[in-house]
What we know:
38% helix; 7-stranded mixed beta sheet
Amino acid sequence: MAVRYLLTGLGNVGRGVLELFAAHQETLASRYGLGARLVGVADSSGAHYFGDKSNDDDKGDADRDDADTHEREKLLAIVRAKRAGRRLRDLDLPGTPLADAQTLVDRAAADVLFEATPTDLTDGQPGLGLVRRALQRNMHAVLASKGPLVLAYPELAALSDLSGDDDAPALRFSGAVGGATPSVNVGRRDLVLADIEQIESTLSSTPNLILDQMRRGVSFDDALAYAQAQGVVEPDPSLDIDGYDAANKLLILVQSVLGYPATLKDVDRQGIGGLTPDDVRCPDDRVLLLVASATKQAGGYHLSVRPRLLEPDHPLANGAPGEMGVVYHTDLYGRITVRCYEEGPTGTAAAMLRDFVGLRPRLVVGSSL
Amino acid sequence: MAVRYLLTGLGNVGRGVLELFAAHQETLASRYGLGARLVGVADSSGAHYFGDKSNDDDKGDADRDDADTHEREKLLAIVRAKRAGRRLRDLDLPGTPLADAQTLVDRAAADVLFEATPTDLTDGQPGLGLVRRALQRNMHAVLASKGPLVLAYPELAALSDLSGDDDAPALRFSGAVGGATPSVNVGRRDLVLADIEQIESTLSSTPNLILDQMRRGVSFDDALAYAQAQGVVEPDPSLDIDGYDAANKLLILVQSVLGYPATLKDVDRQGIGGLTPDDVRCPDDRVLLLVASATKQAGGYHLSVRPRLLEPDHPLANGAPGEMGVVYHTDLYGRITVRCYEEGPTGTAAAMLRDFVGLRPRLVVGSSL
């Protein structure tokens, strides 16, 4: 039986998810036993429910091949239409049009929600409502959006297997904290039993891409324009420049890895606005980066985002422009560093597939896991 | 019901495993539901079977607390005796003395084998026989020793869940390839569906610690003596110096992450012997490190171990002396780097506990996973 999934959000990441499902359909089935069917999709214009046609157990091989081909064509047709600037509500698709993503998640019969809508960081919507409802309806939720996690991590964790209840639906978000960087995964799975003294991170790529330009003598405004031309700056540049993106990623890490409850007001935050090329260039070989840190102190952790001069032997110091990374300073495992240099949204979409495959023991009927 | 485990090997790593179980007994139980009881242990002098007393479901809380205290004291008594230079066969322990580790694994009723005996890299023994038998007897196997994996990965994988059979016992070895470095874990779990173009690694710490000394002007012989005084050189220094350790770790990575079958004769291997401080010091800011690589080529991968001059912006270039690392060059996830700087054997022992906790869904009765 194929896994039935919903996808909310058809921006770069959402389209990437569909492309990856289309390209890797056979590998997912043969290597992981994970057939998959998109049963519903939504963008900001509306939603569409294809219906639950996933059960093709009773089909012969030839019919199943036909179904696979049909599925791949369906996914790629949506991608092409969106790339061409069309809205979902204007497409001629088989099935049932619905008002919006929330209606889709309220009504659809599905096993997994992939949530990749643009994040509103003041109220976490629409992602928060979608993820909450999916978990309440016993769907697993795989997120690329940060808003729901930043604003409602304790609530969502309590609704999911992160509460410790193995029977609850899974909540996964390895693509929400630095794209393809396995920042959350290494923190949660590979540092078992460790006492974490400090986290240092450069998971907000754009400010450090801007600082790299300024290191070459470019003014702040021109460096920002350069980054905007690369398509990597948030529509509201303040999210990047003033360190909100870095703070939000830090908040997800400290809640999910450290189990430490915190909100944006707990972060001592300083951005890169107002810096000049002379501030950024060092006479020695240190390098100025926007670093988000959590440092153990009496009663918890001190959280900060600020430009820091890193010594050349700091494990985040010699990255490529905009390379992301996180350092965990631990007792049992020493100093563990994870870095990722990627371009484009593929890494985030791939991280959602990584999460999906990680749910295999819960998705494959007959798995003994 | 507590998980019953065997431990073979009571060197630094094995003792570390016992210390970690003693120190984290309560956390393992409360956070992961993993009670654990050492039911058998072996060193090179012999083995000891404590018997299957793990079932304390029918005990009251007070009795269980007593049992926990007793277990902790048992573990720490073994550690103290070994630290004092005593042999297992000379200790006065409750239960049954056995001839050797193989007899223990042949006879004991247990759920998990922790295998941490010294590796013989010509025949993989005694670890290979122990792991093979454990898997055949349906015990999960957690390895710190490299020999069995280097020499018999295909056979051991076929006996375990790595064959794709979820009902087969698990084979885990995250501590065998760079101590605490989550090199295997990131490769296997976080690069799902990726095409891996190249792996570069500095997971053999000792040669690079020696090169670091030589960079400071120390002769090869004195640098080797320095590393030996740190206790990090293999009894046969050739394993480190001639790149065998680096090659073996690479062979485990390429088999387990790339699924590419290879043996030592497939590795184009060049060590650091014969280098002088002048060879090691660069006039520019490049750095010479012993790097093990797997590079995609027609029909498979080219495997090599050799000293390489890394540019300063290479993600492994700015490590601390002897810092370990691996870089995965992928299509979907970009360039992913994992590094670990640790001292002492705690990281490897902790990695075995990491593997153990990762088996939780298979170990906890009543888990729905």
